[in-house]
Amino acid sequence: MQSNMFSRAIRVVTIATVFSLTPLHVFAAAPMVKTSAPGYYRFMLGDFEVTALSDGTVDLPVEKLLQEPAKKTIAALDNAFLKTPLEISDNAYLINTGKRLVLVDAGAGDLFGPTLGKLMNNLKASGYKPAQVDDIFLTHMHPDHVGGLSANGVIQFPNAVVHAERHEGAYWLSQKNLDSAPAASKGFFQGAMASVNPYVQAGKFSPFDGSVELVPGVRSDPSFGHTPGHTSYMIESEGQKLLLMGDLIHVPAVQLDHPTVTIAFDTYPKAAAASRIKVFNQAARERTLVAGAHLPFPGMGHLRATGKSYQWVPVNFTQMRAGQQKTY
């Protein structure tokens, strides 16, 4: 009797041991998804709803592009736990004022390779449709900011008017400038023309001059240098402010510590550096929330001045809830 009980106990222990040592994946092997969630992030700015939209990321050999010795760039990246080529975000911002739906920049479309051009899908995933956009304000006309406007000559935002600073349009939409541009730069002009000219031809392009309130709560803020008409946009509602600063910075691991370092994409490097320092100083002094097109998504945070350098403080993650007004 005792022998039978002992044998049964041994069998139970053996079975339990086998099961405890058997890897779980033998029973349920789940495939890897290998994709991220839709790239949008939403919060309230006063009475305005702001949605950061990702157009994707792109790998850039920044040690070759920054006007800084490659060794210094690589060392700065390593100090920030990064490496080259550096994966850089391309961000755009959708502002719902309650009366108008405003998009700042339109992503790359198909002008910058397969890792960009995600803006349209992310806009739809965020709950909006392209036909709902009333106005599109361009920080500048580089291909990663205008490519999403048109596809094969067809307007992608059928009810929107496109706005850009007049110097920007005059420069990039000029056939004369295209003809005289170096071969390596011609694609920038061609991309701008292919993307913006369909709106020009449809009577849906409206340039502006300098600093002006474009719609209630949205004001242009000239920050020339990166391009001839590069423009930042100040969004303000109920005393809350957000400065969308476009391409004033590309590589924070380098340019926060050394803000005079420029990049090969700058049309006027000295002016670009001067604009960066001026805007950064004011934003740090006034504690203004800022967003950058190429800062890690969602690209929003605050700047803190430390002598001639700056520190970046990203926004604290905020989850929007029904009926709740989250603000910064």
Give keywords.
single chain, 328 residues, alpha+beta, Metallo-beta-lactamase, Chain A, 7-stranded mixed β-sheet, 6-stranded mixed β-sheet, 10 helices, 15 strands, globular
Give a structural overview.
The chain has ten helices and 15 strands. With 328 residues, it is α+β, with helices and mostly antiparallel strands. The protein has a single domain (40-314), classed as Metallo-beta-lactamase, Chain A. The strands form three sheets. A seven-stranded mixed beta sheet has the order 9-10-11-12-13-14-15. Strand 1 and strand 2 form a beta hairpin. The longest helix has 20 residues, at 2-21. The radius of gyration is 25 Å and the shape is globular.
Please name the CATH topology: Metallo-beta-lactamase, Chain A
CATH superfamily: Ribonuclease Z/Hydroxyacylglutathione hydrolase-like
- Which strand order does the major sheet show? 9-10-11-12-13-14-15
Give the tally of structural domains. 1
Radius of gyration, whole Å: 25 Å
Helix content: 25-40%
At a glance:
The chain is of the alpha+beta class. It has a single domain (40-314), classed as Metallo-beta-lactamase, Chain A.
SSE arrangement:
Elements: H1 2-21, E1 40-45, E2 48-60, H2 62-65, H3 70-79, E3 86-96, E4 101-104, H4 119-125, E5 135-137, H5 143-146, E6 150-151, E7 154-155, E8 161-163, H6 166-172, H7 175-180, H8 186-201, E9 213-215, E10 218-222, E11 231-237, E12 240-244, H9 252-255, H10 269-286, E13 289-291, E14 300-306, E15 309-314
Parallel strand pairs: 4-5, 5-8, 12-13
Antiparallel strand pairs: 1-2, 2-3, 3-4, 6-7, 9-10, 10-11, 11-12, 13-14, 14-15
